[in-house]
Each structure stands twice: as C-alpha cells, then as structure tokens.
Request: fold
Amino acid sequence: MLIVKKFGGSSVANADRVRHVAGLIAEDVEKGHRVIAVLSAQGDTTDELIAKAHEISANPSKRELDMLISTGEQQSVALMSMALHEMGYKAISLNAFQVGMHTTRVYGNSRLKRIDSERINVELDRGNVVLVTGFQGVNRYEDYTTLGRGGSDTTAVAIAAAMHADRCQIFTDVEGVYTADPRIVKNARKLKEISYDEMLELASQGAKVLHNRSVEMAKRYNVVLEVLSSMTRAEGTLVKEETQVERLLITGIAVDKNVARVSLIGLADVPGRAFRVFDLLSRNNINVDIILQSIGREGTKDISFTISRDDMEATRTLLEANKEQLGAQEIQLSDQFAKISIVGAGMISNPGVASKMFEALYNAGVNIHMISTSEIKISVLIAQRNVELAMEAIHDRFNMAGSI
Amino acid sequence: MLIVKKFGGSSVANADRVRHVAGLIAEDVEKGHRVIAVLSAQGDTTDELIAKAHEISANPSKRELDMLISTGEQQSVALMSMALHEMGYKAISLNAFQVGMHTTRVYGNSRLKRIDSERINVELDRGNVVLVTGFQGVNRYEDYTTLGRGGSDTTAVAIAAAMHADRCQIFTDVEGVYTADPRIVKNARKLKEISYDEMLELASQGAKVLHNRSVEMAKRYNVVLEVLSSMTRAEGTLVKEETQVERLLITGIAVDKNVARVSLIGLADVPGRAFRVFDLLSRNNINVDIILQSIGREGTKDISFTISRDDMEATRTLLEANKEQLGAQEIQLSDQFAKISIVGAGMISNPGVASKMFEALYNAGVNIHMISTSEIKISVLIAQRNVELAMEAIHDRFNMAGSI
Reply:
C-alpha cells in the first residue's frame, strides 16, 4: 500500500516530536507499506522567519518572503530523514525543486499545477521513505512559491492524487472532525466520516481542521482523506465522496468569529446603489459574505453585510472616503458578531431544518441578525457573547451527540 | 564594471548588519556598477542547524546535513534582497538550484564543477543586484551539496571567473592580509598585495583570512581578489599573479596551533618501517605534515611527525593497536607544539633566509624541534608557549613592519 502522511508544524516542533513522528512512519514501513510524508516547518519557524523579514521591511517582496520561509519545511524534512536513519530506516528528503512541485506564478498564495512523480518513484523504488516539503512549490521562473494557509494539506493531497496513493492521512492536533468544536460544546461527537461538500462548508465556516483548498483538491481527484491525531491512537475521520445510506441530517456546527458587520444606513432607494457599494469593495479585494438589504425610512434603504474582521479598518476607510458618492447617511461597523453555521448533506431533502435551528435559537433567547443558506448549509449571524449558548442549543436540538 | 562581493556570516548576522551591507552594495550600484553578492548564513545559523541535527543523530547523513544547513544561506540572500528593495534598489536572491551551481557528487565537502551564467545574466540585465547563496551547490542527483570550510569564498571566486567579473571582493572581519597576525605581533603590517602562491602557503599555514580552495581557484582562473573589511573603509589587500618588481623577501608569518607531534621511539633500523607507519596512517585518512627521522640507540631509529590535533586521539588508538606490528618500543604524542611558517616568493633566490630565521629564534631563546621547507616557505615546530616570542623575533629580524 502507498500511504501519504502529512504532519503539521506542532507535530514536528522539536527533536522529541520528530522522533515520535518517525516512529509513526516506521510502523507503516514495518507493515510493508511505502510511505511519503509531507511535513510543515517546525513549530513557530515560519512566524519567526516572517518576523525576521519584518525587521528589515514592513512590506517585504512576496517573492523574497517565499524564498525565505520555504527554508522552514526543508529543515523539517532533513531532520525527519536523519531521525529515520537513526532508527535504521532508509529515508530521503526532497524539496519543491527536487520533487518538481509546479505551481502558478503568484507568490504567497500559489496553486499547485503539476507534480512530477519521477524522483519520488525512484526513491520509493530504492526502498526510501520519501519526505517532502509541504506548503511550497516552484513556479515557471524557477522561483519558490508558497501555497498560503493550510498549504501543506494541499501538498499532501496533490501528492496522493499524483502518485495514486491508497491513503492520505492528515495528522492534526485534534482526533478528527467533530459535530462541533469540543472546546465549546462538551458533548460534541467525533464523526466517522464526512463528505467532501460537508467538509468544505465546515471548513469555510470556520472549522480549522482542514483547509478548503485541500478538500477541494481531494474532491476533484477523489482522494479519500483520513483526519487523525499524531498524539493518540484514536481512529480519525474519513473525508470522502458521500454515501447516501450514511447521509446525516446535520453533520456539524461551525463557528466563525472572524466576522464584522457593516451597515450603510439611509441610501437613496434608487437602482444601482447596491451595485456601487459591492463593486467598490470588490475592486479593493474585500470579500463580502452575508448580505441583507432592508427598506429604511422615507424612501431610503439600508444595506448590511459581513466581511472578514481583518478587512474592517480597510473597509471603514474606503467607505468613509466614498460616503458622499455612495449617498449613505450613516456607516456603521461592528465586530461584536459571530457566524454560526450548520452543515449537512441531509438538508437538501429536509426543508424543516432551518426552522428547527431558528426555533432552537429562539428558545435559547438568541437573537438572529442575518441569515444565509446554501444547499447543505445554514448560517446565522448572532451576537458574539451568545456563541456558546447557541452552539449548545443547536447541538442538543439536532441530537448531534446521539448515534447516527 | 561587474563586481562580485562576498560577505561572511558575521557581516550579515542581524538586521542592522544586513542593512549595512546593503548600503555597501548600493554604493556600487550608484556608481553604475553591476553587482553580484555572495552571502554566507547569518551569524551562528549553520552551527545552530548542525546542533539541531546532532539532537537527532550523532552522525547524521551528510546528504541530509547539506539539505539542512543549505537553508542558512538561502535565508541570508532573501533578507538582503528585502533590505535592498527597502532602500529603493532592484535585487533578487538566487540559491544553488536557481543559479545552476553544479558540484561534484560528494556531500559536506564538494567541489564546484560548473556555474550556469544564464539566470544571473538575465537578472543583471533586468537591473537587479543578484544575491547568490554561498557555500552550496547542487550535484548530478539534484541534491544540495556544501563546499566545506571557506566555501562561500570559493563560490564568489567561481562566479567571478564564470561571469568574467572585473573585481572579486572578499569582505572579512579583518582589513586585509597582514605580515603576521596583528593580535600577536603588534607592528604587523597590512600588505598591499600578495601573490596567489604566497597566499596559498599562508592560508595552509594557518592564516584564517582566505581559504586555500578559493585561492587555488582564483589562481587557476586568474581572478584578482581583494580582501577587505566590511566594517571600515580602509584599502584591502590584492591577491594576484606575482609581479617580479614587487617581490618581497618575506611576505608574512603564519602560525598553526592545530598540530600534534607523534614520536615512535626505538623502531628496528630495517628498511620498510617508515613505509609501514605512513601507509597505516594514510589508509586511515590521517594526514601527516612534517616528518623527522633520526637514528636512535642500539641499531634502532626514531620517527617523529606532525598531524592535525583533531586526529590525535584516532592516531593514538591506531598506533597503540599496531604497536607490536610496527615494532615500536614507545609511542609519544604531544599537543604542546605550534608550527610557525614564513612565506615569501623572494626566498627562491635568497638562500640565506632559513639561517636568518633560525638565528632570530636562537637569539630569542626559542628551540626548534622540526623543520620543513618548500620553495617559498619555511616552517618550524616550536613549543606552543614560545609562539608570540618567536613571531615577534622573526617579524623584527626581517624588518617586516618597515617599508617594502
């Protein structure tokens, strides 16, 4: 069996952790499997390198930043190879150049285009465990690129797809995907499996387990993912194509606190106003999530929408500068909100899910400020102080701690 | 003018030093020169990475060690590029893969074979300062290699040769090449120039300014080197083909404390004994420097020789294990010696130099234990406690502080 295993930065943070992970890899080798392990940079290495760059430049060139931070993963794979040698196993480390990890041109947030399988195959055939740098690639100019957040997950999935691996295991600091964040909802339940689409909705709604891009890629190439912990022996969660029989009404709840609500009050109620607002934001690379338009007083209307909290100050500056032109009487911004989402493939055929959710929140005394829905997801904006109350209420209402 | 500048680890140890070096590079750019800068890893980075490897393995694979430590230079060049950008200059960093820095296969102590000039030329033509990782290369397997001690000097010289640079400046923490170590001999004089051969003898006799391999390469490709300080504006020393008119009797004195003396006492005075000893050492990769054979008592002879102090324990073990077979009555090892060498192209035509040196030592009360000579060098082994006394005496005797 060919297994791709991915370990994040905390899993390889120091010599002891490296040895521990080497042990996990060795177990597979002992079983006769061929193993490719994708590693992130050790612990806080990437952040430390970024801090070094910022000592020199407030806004360093992205090309040079990628050149700088891509060294972190290279150190991890070299050290892991040494640890495996020390235990008596054959191993070799490869970086993005050596593998041939081809990406788009853009720096800092590149996308994988193609992975050469030749070198990896040669090394596997020589009996080596192959240790590959996550998060990084090489573009057409032969420059290092990095893949952005969750990049190492994407590397692992892409390698699993390119090499036709039998398994792709993503080791994290949690034991799998849960119905809700176990730190918030006490009786949250670990899922045995979840579909790609559900995982995508959960990921984009704030669940930190897997990054969207890696799930999208897994879906496209039908790579079955296994999310599990590097610290325990517990069975993890499989992320795979949905199987109808196992379809859950609600798979999980996610919370996203990185939201801000923006309200434009008293816009003239004439066509094109909304377009102007969102065109302005889009041209400034500010993504809008939930949108609510309401009729205001005296022939005016109000528009509310949510953005990432990181964009709050930029949005404030932008809207204030264009207040006149947009014809808004007042602009309000608030970071006192959070977005709660429930996700489940079973929703499609169960129209009562939304009202059940709203009822649970009503009974818990939680006010709903905005609503957004997709085929398999319902999101509501609520006051941030109500997050725990709301999650518990929803989790109970849908009996998510119970059996499938 | 195309200028290659090389800066060592201490010259780029932190953000302030990086900015300072960026300033030196910028001065050349302002004068209209094209600049390639070769950088070492920052400060103690390489040692820290080696320590990390040793946390995992007492004897890490050299291939993986090179993979690990080659990240240090990559960080330096990326940071330097950012510093130049910050000052408003165009710059780009390149590592061994990107340049095409081809080496022999061996890890840890590889030799440069060929440097592709294409990428560097393209970047220079775009108006970039090109920042190249020193010390590292890529071998035929597309694996990182490192060049061993002084490797970044070699990289700089090789690039200067490949690119037909007009100048190759090696920045160090001293202002140039001196007649003797200024920390030992107070009135040591900085040389305006020195020939490749003299520099080679000085380097191999313990002068730390330039590494042998870089000087050999400079000689082979006739690259004029300029050794100067990154901290002061003082004129440095030129290392170049010798020009007869400027030939000095003695160019410099070097001291090497990394020596140990080995004596085999009471060997049977029959043919082949010496061969057996040195064959044994050679097969165990122990290099022998000065050799002295003397007649001992009662038909026996004694053999003394010097080795690197690093090899002392290995040599002791080896000789003790073979004592019987070698037929030695006694084996003595001592690290209480030092080797003092005087170097000068002018020696060839001045047979009186050796006796002048011995006279100076005699007058200073310094006993000579062994002697070795080449065309342009005389080395003597003396007690280590006499090093300063001896250097002062020789320096004075040859009037080395005086005018040329």
